[in-house]
Structure formats: structure tokens, C-alpha cells
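User: Here's a structure from my thesis project, written as C-alpha cells. My advisor, Dr. K., wants to see whether a designed sequence matches the one we expressed. Can you design one independently, without my sequence as a hint?
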């Protein structure tokens, strides 16, 4: 009986070993299957991501395309600027010769046409287009328009100072009927000639503070007109006053925008009012100082610079005898 039990035990062990061996093989197959499935899934995910990145890169490259080359079309003394930008135009800037550039805000429109009149004589036009991404396109062109001798001429004199300028219209062969001028979109002002034989007409006007566009038109007796448009930066010079009050010198400097720096030299002694001075205030519009006169000759030099970078200088001497 012991022999039978032993035999049965051995048979049971063989069956268990066979079962365990089959189980281990199945697990390996399952692991290999899932490993391959995960690998295939990972390859699919990487492919999808790579495709999206490629598509995004191509889209970005398309978006940052700069403005198209600027087209300038001329017909007689008329000129048309044609600008296009797929990303949208931010601004167009054009300049005649060395004059102040003129900017036009486009607010993202994709194309724009701007009509200009070419000035008489030899002139150079420079045009720049800037899109919404900051990309630029530039061009320049020379133009030579023959002068119309029947048109009046306009001259502007800025040298008279005190925040004013003089406009003069002349015509050697015809009378000047009137001049019109206006700042920006302000109301137009007309200055008429006093008599019919007047071949020259002038007027003095105040310069508008800050950067502004002045448009001037002169009309002669043949109804021929000439127009001048120019940008002016209206600024004022500092005003320096020096007054003697018995044995004292009173110095007063005024400017409606304040001062950047004032240098005083009184009898060889220098004093400076600027940002390093404890009581400095760039917005202070009036600065006053007093100095006692010394016996004999006294010299004063004052140099004032406004916050607009306009300047004024005063130099003076006076003799003082103590009473």
C-alpha cells in the first residue's frame, strides 16, 4: 500500500509540473503581446505628434511672411502707392527728400492704395511698409516733374523765432489773389491780397505746439494754385530776464514746459540748476535767483535749456558803486 501511495504522489507531481510549465509559457506570450501593442501605440502617438508639429511649423512659416514688394504707379504728376501684406499692414511710412516722415496707421488691413501728388522739380520718395509681425518692405524712387511757371511759389521762413513763422507767396508774372493755410484738420484760414497788382503776399502765423502738419495753398490771378504741406515741431525758446534792483541782480528764466538745465556764471562763479540740484523740478516753469553785486564791474552769463531742448543765452555787464 505504501508503494501505491508513493506512485500516486509521483504522478500528481508530474501533473503539477506539466500545468506550471504551460502557465509560464502563456504568461510570456501575453507579455510579448502587450509589449508589441504598447510599442505600436507609442509609434502611432509619436507619428500624430510629429505630423501636428510639422503642420504647425508650416502654418507659422506661412503667417510670418513679410509684406509684398511695394508698387509705385505714376501717371503724370500723380502717384499711387500700392501696399499688400498677408499678415496685415500695421503702418505705411513715406518721405519726400529729407522732410519729416509721414506715417499712416493701417490697423491690420491686408492691402491699401494711397494717392500722392509728386512735387515739382527733382524729388526722391522713400516708402516703408510694416506688417503686424514687424516685418518690413522698403523702396525708393526718383521723380522729376517740370515746374509750371504759371503757378505761384510758396516759401516758409522759420527763422523769425518766438514761436512764429512767415508764409510768403510770390508770382513774377501774375497777381497773388489769396493764401489759405490750416493746421492738421483745423479750420482753414484765408489771407487775401489788398490790391489787384500785388505779386507777393505774406503773413506771419503762430506755430502750433508739438508736431503738426501745416498745409498752405496760394492762388494767383489765373486761378493756378500751388500747395505746400509740411510737418512742424512747434517749440518755444526759454525767456531770460535780468533786472538790477539797487545792489542786487534779479534773474528770472521762464518756459511753459520747464527746464532741463540752467547754468549761471556770475563774476566767474558757476552755478548749475539740473537733476543733481536738490530742489530741481523739471516741470517748474519759472526759476528766479538773486545775487548781490560786488564793487566795480559785474559780469553775468546765463544759459538755459528747456525740456524741449530749446536754448537761450544771456550775457551782460554792469558797474556797481556802493553808496
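Assistant: Designed independently from the structure alone:
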Amino acid at each position: 500500500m505504501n508503494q501505491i501511495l508513493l506512485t500516486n504522489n509521483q504522478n500528481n507531481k508530474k501533473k503539477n509540473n506539466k500545468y506550471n510549465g504551460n502557465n509560464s509559457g502563456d504568461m510570456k506570450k501575453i507579455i510579448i503581446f502587450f509589449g508589441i501593442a504598447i510599442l505600436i501605440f507609442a509609434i502611432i502617438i509619436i507619428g500624430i505628434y510629429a505630423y501636428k508639429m510639422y503642420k504647425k511649423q508650416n502654418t507659422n512659416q506661412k503667417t510670418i511672411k513679410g509684406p509684398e514688394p511695394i508698387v509705385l504707379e505714376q501717371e503724370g504728376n500723380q502717384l499711387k502707392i500700392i501696399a499688400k501684406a498677408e499678415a496685415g499692414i500695421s503702418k505705411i511710412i513715406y518721405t519726400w527728400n529729407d522732410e519729416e516722415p509721414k506715417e499712416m496707421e493701417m490697423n491690420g488691413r491686408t492691402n491699401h492704395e494711397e494717392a500722392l501728388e509728386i512735387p515739382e522739380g527733382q524729388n526722391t520718395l522713400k516708402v516703408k511698409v510694416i506688417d503686424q509681425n514687424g516685418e518690413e518692405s522698403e523702396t525708393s524712387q526718383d521723380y522729376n516733374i517740370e515746374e509750371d511757371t504759371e503757378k505761384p511759389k510758396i516759401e516758409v521762413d522759420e527763422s523769425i523765432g518766438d514761436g512764429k513763422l512767415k508764409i510768403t507767396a510770390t508770382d513774377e508774372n501774375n497777381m497773388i489773389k489769396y493764401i489759405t493755410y490750416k493746421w492738421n484738420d483745423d479750420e482753414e484760414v484765408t489771407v487775401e491780397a489788398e490790391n489787384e497788382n500785388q505779386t507777393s503776399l505774406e503773413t506771419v502765423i503762430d506755430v502750433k505746439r508739438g508736431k503738426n502738419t501745416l498745409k498752405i495753398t496760394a492762388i494767383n490771378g489765373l486761378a493756378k494754385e500751388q500747395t505746400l504741406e509740411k510737418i512742424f515741431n512747434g517749440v518755444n525758446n526759454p525767456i531770460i530776464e535780468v533786472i538790477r534792483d539797487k545792489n542786487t541782480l534779479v534773474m528770472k528764466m521762464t518756459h511753459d514746459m520747464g527746464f532741463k538745465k540752467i547754468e549761471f556764471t556770475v563774476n566767474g562763479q558757476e552755478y548749475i540748476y539740473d537733476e543733481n540740484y536738490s530742489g530741481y523740478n523739471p516741470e517748474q516753469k519759472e526759476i528766479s535767483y538773486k545775487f548781490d553785486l560786488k564793487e566795480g564791474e559785474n559780469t553775468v552769463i546765463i544759459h538755459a535749456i528747456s525740456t524741449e531742448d530749446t536754448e537761450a543765452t544771456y550775457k551782460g555787464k554792469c558797474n556797481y558803486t556802493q553808496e
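When you compare it with your expressed construct, this may help: The longest helix spans residues 2-63.
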